[in-house]
Amino acid sequence: YKVVSLTFKADLNEIKLFVDSIFLLPSKKMMEERSFTLKTETKKKLFVSYCHKNKAEVEKIISGLREYGLDFWLDEEQIDVGDRLMERIDEVVRLSDIPIIFLSEATKESMFAKHELFVFFDKVIYQQSTAKPWFIVKLDQVDPYDIMFGLGNLKYIDYEHSTIEEIAQAIEKR
Fold it and tell me: What is residue 38's predicted lDDT score, i.e. its pLDDT?
């Protein structure tokens, strides 16, 4: 047996060096020759669109959904000082796997939330892209038609009548 002692404050590179010196692992080529498939699992990245008046409620929902292994793009976590907000949002909507949109009465008054909806509609709905699924959560009794024409034609999940687990399962299904 080979034993290696790690220092108390070993960083990731030091740990990797220690582990590499302990284990002799076959090469990727050798693994593939023996019919092992090496596949990297990647989580779907969900873009979150919401009105900042609903921030506390959305953060609570997102926190619960992260416990189910879902990965989210939130503006506060991903937009840096000096970034152009609208350009960054447009870019991330295009790059995300699934946009998740939270609708509420407050959404009707939010310029940024409406902009994100227009980008979403343009990229996903109007161009009739079937490659990108979408997901809508209605937080309160808002009528989606009051927010934007055509929004009421889309299926959504009603947060007032759903659990976090049900929402997570519905997102996973998409």
Answer: 64
CA distances from 82 to 48, 76, 86 (A): 21, 13, 12
> Pairing state of beta strands 135-138 and 71-73?
unpaired
User: H helices of 7-84, where?
Assistant: 12-22, 28-33, 55-66, 75-78
CA distance 64 to 89: 24
What are 100-135's pLDDT values in tens digits?
889 999 988 888 788 777 777 776 556 555 566 778
Q: Which residues contact 117 (CB under 8 A, 6 or more apart)?
A: 49, 101, 107, 147, 148, 151
Residues 144 and 154: beta-carbon distance below 8 Å: yes
Cβ atoms 58, 102 nearer than 8 A: yes
Query: Cβ(139)–Cβ(103) under 8 Å?
Result: yes
31/100: higher pLDDT:
100
Long-range contacts, 36-40 (Cβ 8 Å, 24+): none
For residues 2-18, give the mean pLDDT.
74
pTM of the entire predicted model? 0.67
